[in-house]
Write a structure and sequence with these properties.
It comes from Bombardia bombarda. The chain is α/β, with parallel strands linked by helices. Helices cover about 30% and strands about 25% of the residues. Bound molecules: guanosine-5'-triphosphate (GTP), potassium ion and magnesium ion. Magnesium ion binds next to helix 3.
């Protein structure tokens, strides 16, 4: 049996030698679809996947969110972890100093964020080179990927890493495509467009669906910029993970000011030098912003709010989520809440469970059994 990695290589080679034009468009689309299926298979443990499959590192999630440090060897991931947390992860000039996932706790604004130092990954990681597969599984469980890059290395490092993450279904800084797909038991295939996209048509969708043996389904493409890759992502949605990524260039002590200025202007990018202790607080602050967490200060009758100790919830959380964080059964006896802060229309505002909270709101919950 030809193994999956070889089949993937064959398809990639065929795609590379196929010229892109109107005539080959559908054929290329089908190849992309097959590639996506094989890559997903490669990630599943079991026969065919060989030693490449298998789980990530055995580190329990803790704290309010998890950030994964992903990067090539010796870019300074462990140096950064050791700077911003109390954990000391081994630092050395040789590649693969870190061999497993090392968790540290980053304290910020009353929140505890788990920072995961990971082994360096190399090209081919998505196919199981080095500890690539495990590193990528760990990255997939994070709320934010901090892609650590070496400012002294070539610009391709970033594209190469992105391609490795892309190959295992991680989508960085993107939203799921705006395409509705509903698989049905009968009725054939129905394809509709809100606005016909420029580079995705009915014929392409129909042939991909056939290739995936999806013979009964409803499709509504709502985005005029949708591509065949987006459509495949929607079919493969159980294998896709949409994660925010912040790019961090380390070792800026070793580059020219002009080049530094150029790096710092790239989108979603921060620069630092762990060696000279430059830019580290900025990196931490940007991480916090990217995580989009909300701090809630609770208040009890007759006392000041607990400003020293925040309760952390995700963005778009409601009073109900706040109750759940305080106590499992609090919402059963919930009567109303008073809210001071950005989410309140007047101060304080009396609200119910569905009220959406904002960062740094003060919340006073009134509960008790109704007579
Ligand atoms: N010039 C310079 N060197 C740095 C900086 N930060 C880290 N280093 C050096 O880079 C080397 C690698 O650092 P590590 O923290 O071990 O890198 P890593 O990314 O954890 O490496 P692996 O675990 O092997 O993947 C060490 O020799 C560090 O002293 C920096 O800001 N500037
Ligand atoms: K190293
Ligand atoms: Mg390391």
């Amino acid at each position: 049996m030809v193994n999956i990695t070889e089949k993937i290589k064959e398809i990639e080679a065929e795609m590379a030698r196929t010229q892109k034009n109107k005539a080959t468009e559908y054929h290329l689309g089908l190849l992309k679809g097959k590639l996506a299926r094989l890559r997903a298979q490669l990630l599943e443990p079991g026969p065919g996947a060989g030693s490449a499959g298998g789980p990530g590192f055995d580190v329990q999630k803790s704290g309010d969110a998890r950030i994964a440090l992903v990067g090539f060897p010796s870019v300074g991931k462990s140096t950064f972890l050791s700077k911003v947390t109390k954990t000391k992860s081994e630092v050395a000039a040789y590649s693969f100093t870190t061999l497993t996932a090392i968790p540290g706790v980053l304290e910020y604004g009353g929140a505890e964020i788990q920072l995961l130092d990971l082994p360096g990954i190399i090209e081919g990681a998505s196919e199981g080179k080095g500890r690539g597969r495990q590193v990528i599984s760990a990255a997939k469980t994070s709320d934010l990927i901090l892609m650590v890059l070496d400012a002294t290395k070539k610009a391709e490092q970033r594209t190469l890493l992105e391609a490795e993450l892309e190959a295992v279904g991680i989508r960085l800084n993107r939203e799921p495509p705006n395409i509705y797909l509903k698989v049905k038991k009968a009725g054939g295939v129905k394809i509709n467009f809100a606005q016909p996209p420029r580079s995705l048509d009915e014929k392409m969708i129909a042939s991909i669906l056939r290739d995936y043996k999806l013979l009964n389904c409803e499709v509504l493409v709502r985005d005029e910029n949708a591509t065949v890759d987006d459509f495949i992502d929607v079919i493969m949605k159980d294998h896709r993970k949409y994660i925010k990524c912040l790019y961090v260039y380390n070792k800026i002590d070793a580059v020219s000011l002009d080049f530094l200025d150029q790096l710092a202007r790239e989108p979603q990018t921060v620069v630092m030098s762990c060696e000279l202790d430059l830019g580290i607080p900025d990196v931490v602050e940007r991480c916090w912003k990217e995580l989009n967490l909300v701090r809630i200060y609770t208040k009890r009758k007759g006392t000041d709010p607990t400003f020293h100790e925040a309760l952390i919830v995700r963005s778009n959380s409601t009073i109900e989520d706040v109750c759940d964080r305080i106590h499992r059964t609090l919402k059963e006896t919930f009567k109303y809440a008073l809210v001071w802060g950005a989410s309140a229309r007047h101060i304080p505002q009396r609200v119910g469970l569905s009220h959406m909270v904002a960062d740094e709101d003060v919340v006073y919950i009134v509960s008790g059994y109704k007579a």
